[in-house]
């Protein structure tokens, strides 16, 4: 897997974005997404209380805590995705399907 770019993000910036994410978690739009009980990545039905908040573009890679960059994910997908960008995640999934 090739990493196309690395972004240096300060600890302070990450802390600021995590605080924004905590605030977004309190909003109705997040509750609506989670109430559907579906993981954004694998599409599996998951009890809403078991879904986690994931940044499509990770904070460590320059992502922001915005509605367009935050999705509900099952713990398994969130743990596997970690710091991957969407294209890197897709490559990872394709590799798993081949193996």
UniProtKB/TrEMBL annotation:
InterPro entries: HNH, HNH_nuc, NA-targeting_endonuclease. Residues 28-79 form the HNH nuclease domain. One of its GO terms (molecular function) is nucleic acid binding. Keywords: Endonuclease, Hydrolase, Nuclease. This is HNH endonuclease.
């Amino acid at each position: 897997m090739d990493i196309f770019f690395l972004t240096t993000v300060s600890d302070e910036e990450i802390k600021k974005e995590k605080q924004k994410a905590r605030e977004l978690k309190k909003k109705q739009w997040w509750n609506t997404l989670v109430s559907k009980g579906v993981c954004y990545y694998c599409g599996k039905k998951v009890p809403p209380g078991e879904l986690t908040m994931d940044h499509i573009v990770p904070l460590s890679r320059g992502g922001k805590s915005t509605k367009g960059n935050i999705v509900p994910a099952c713990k398994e997908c969130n743990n596997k995705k970690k710091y991957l960008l969407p294209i890197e995640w897709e490559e990872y999934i394709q590799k798993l399907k081949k193996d």
